[in-house]
Write a structure and sequence with these properties.
alpha+beta, 148 residues, 34% strand, 6-stranded antiparallel β-sheet
Amino acid sequence: MARVKLELPDRFVFTTEIGVHISYINYGGHLGNDAVLSLLHEARVRFFHSLGYSELDIEGRGIVMADAVVVYLSEAFHQDLLVISMAVTSFHAAGCDLYYQIMNKATGKEVARAKTGIVFFDYQARRPVRVPEAFRRRFMLESAASGR
């Protein structure tokens, strides 16, 4: 079976640092695959917070994760400091893609790369809704400025 390949965008719009907690370590003594989704979630929450949003209120709308792809590239260990960079791309009517690159700060090695598809969601009506125009515009302008 062929391995999944994930190409990253040229430009990231947010970076945060997160330490590897002992609860993220699996029986192999390194960062567990399940913990990577938790790291992505924490990075996403921090990203939205930096913009004045929460996952339940982005211009009045919430989000749900529609899909996730993770490609593991090297090990990370307890107490490593990870640098997670994020990009926003591929807008469609109800959502977009968030890309993540996870690097080990001390070694410079890429630990993983990931993509999560998000869909904007009205939690009261329990249905997907259109991407808030102000959110779309913010990142469409970023893309245009970077030449993508």
